[in-house]
Specification:
Layout: H1 2-33, E1 36-37, E2 40-45, H2 47-50, E3 56-58, E4 68-72, E5 75-81, E6 84-95, E7 97-106, E8 120-128, H3 134-139, H4 142-153, E9 157-168, E10 176-178, E11 185-193, E12 197-204, E13 212-220, E14 227-240
Parallel strand pairs: 9-11
Antiparallel strand pairs: 1-2, 2-14, 3-6, 4-5, 5-14, 6-13, 7-12, 7-14, 8-9, 8-13, 10-11
Amino acid sequence: MRAINLYVNILTLKTLRFSVALRTIISISACATLHCFAGDFFHVATPLKSGDSTQWLRLKYRQIPPTIYLLENGRMKISVKSSASPIIYIFSEPRKIRRLYVRGNISKLPLLSNADDFLLRIGPAISGEKRLSFFERLAAPNWIRSLDEIAKAKKLGFGHLDLGVISSRNPPAWKNRVHPQSDLIRETAMISLAVPGEFSFEQNYTKELPLSLGIWIGSDGDDSKTEFNLTIEELSIEYFEI
């Protein structure tokens, strides 16, 4: 009986070792195809490198000249001439954002003080419970109707924009705010550029954040009547595997 028990224990130990080894192999394989950090699996998307222009949506504001966005050679060139308008990268399916990284450069800094203009506003369009009624659609600005349509196509509602802001020369008086013209826009002052050249910033998110519909990008100089050009060299979006 003791010999039988010893054989069973050895067999159990070998089985356990094989199970642990198999799990390790599976984990290594999964990390190779996705990415793995602290036990979380996540994908990385680089939309500027994909060359797919069908997922980009350009919007216009009423009675304001639009900002020009040119997708070229894996970069985004932005030209502002007393203009304002956003461009949205629409996800093929809603995503749980983990991290957003942006790197770019600007050759000359404009003076945007005392105006609601920024070199860059960028961040996820978050899903939520908002759905426009027929009468609300008639009165809503174009950008809200567009976000409502994007959400509806994904069988979701719209929540808000969660934007990081890059300012020129002088930082805004606030660190975080709800935009005075719309409670659907929430902004965080990320960096303020004192000199021209290269810039970068990243924003991290938790799994508790609702699904995102896409990434909103905007540069504006309509209030301050300024002109400037900047280039986004790299845009990296990490999202959780769900």
